[in-house]
Specification:
The complex is a heterodimer of chains A (276) and B (260).
Chain A (H helix, E strand, L loop, with lengths): L22 H26 L3 H41 L3 H16 L2 H11 L4 H7 L2 H5 L1 H27 L2 H9 L4 H31 L11 H12 L3 H28 L6
Chain B lengths: L1 H11 L8 H6 L12 H33 L4 H16 L2 H22 L10 H27 L2 H9 L4 H31 L11 H12 L2 H30 L7
Helix pairs in contact in B: 3-4, 3-6, 3-9, 4-6, 5-6, 6-8, 7-8, 8-10, 9-10
The chains are: A mainly alpha (276), B mainly alpha (260).
Chain lengths: 276, 260
Amino acid sequence: MSVIERLIPPRAPPPVAKRPLTASKVVGIGILVLWALLAMALISMVIEGWDPAKFERYGPRYLNGLLTTLTLVGISIVLGAILSLPIAFARMSQNRVLNAITYAYVYVFRSTPLLAQLFLIYYGLGSFRPQLENLGLWWFFREAWYCGLFSLTLNTAAYQAEILRGAIQSVPVGQHEGAAALGISKRVAFWKIVLPQALIVALRPYGNEIILMIKGSAVVAIVTVYDLMGETRYAFSRTFDYQTYLWAAIFYLSMVEALRHLWNFIERHLTRHLTH
Amino acid sequence: MSGWLSALFDTLDPFCGPVGIFTWLGGTGLVSCGDTGWGDEIAFGVKVTISLALATLPVGLLIGFLIALAAQSQEKLLRLAAGVYTTIFRGLPELLTLFIVYYGAQTLLQSVLSAFGYEGRVEINAFVAGMVALAVVFSSYSSEVLLSAFRAIPRGQYEAGDALGLRRGKTMMLIVLPQLIRIALPGLTNLWLILLKDTSYVSVIGLADIVRQTGIAARVSKEAFFFYFLACLLYLVLAMLSSYGLGYIERWAKRSEVSR
């Protein structure tokens, strides 16, 4: 039996390892300095070129444009969501004809540029003025705002239908079978069991879609809608001041970042029962 | 040498060549080739769109790869720098990025040249401006795709490279990159299709792409619906062709994987 006779005296902790100046650190600092210089240049440009008269004239217009963008995106997202429901169900149905039609719709609207779709609707349908007047639809296709709304809605409906279909099909078959085993009717099973799980899957793609729509809605400026981009182009064409684009960038960036953070919060909140 | 090569391209021209679609279907109508129709102008637009997308792709991929490398490095500062880049350029509308690059480069060049005493008007090439803007947007999206592909490659692959005595660069080129491409290919296919659509924005700064050429044709001939429909159709065909081609490449890249 051995007995400890002396304690090991306390020793100083090992020295902190020196972190060498690696190449990646140098590059990182270099790029950050570049970013800082760029930011400073932009800020100094704004301060130097600050003109209260311009601010008074174009400031309210910018806010109006922001409001137009937000309403345009908000309405088209909601209308697109409503329109996407039947499309998603037709895509999932066994009916060959319905399936083919909706597949073609989704494929066409997802693989052609929004700009070309907008031109097709605004200028293309606009050339059928007599027919549209006969149908009583001319008031709709005459206004650039309505045409922008229409094309954004059709575009987002195609994307949202795919999101919804993917999310519904991602719910395992066992969930349907479990509901059937419990004697729950198909309707109730869909609304109470399948859809809540599908919407959690669809949450992130929906957020991405809204961000894409905010960015995509800038194209309506080209057909003379005064949204945020349209007001920016108006202000630039009057002043030839580069600042106008910087302000638009700030507005768009803050919109997208706010939405991204809101979406992260919502997702964390809604999936808190799934994390341990 | 170049004589027969250009003759070959003229024969194989899918629009206005001897077997071209506009030559066959255009007749002497709106889309015929030559001075009476718009066939050759639109064919030129298609060429501009394709060459812009093809010119943007390698630049965007290279920048995106570097950003992805920076975003997964151990160095906090480098990650921060990459994060700033992707946050800015994924948050801005493509159209706004294009204007910022186009007018920004013009303003910058003008002020630099006037500092050297040159007072003439400076015009930036629309093709280059469009290429830079699209490459910046493409790179910020592709960096995310490549980053998630990097994360899908286990650490053991790097350790195996070390164990074999390969240098960092060699490990990257011989071990990591081949797997990375295979994992990232579906995501990059998506981004290519998005890039093809985004090229339509350059028509706004005056580059003669599909949308601009069909737009001119529509304005002159007053057949707006027909020409914009044609533009949509051309984009659709381009998307179909590229998804077919990329599907082939994807199958080729996966040929050594276990088939089930």
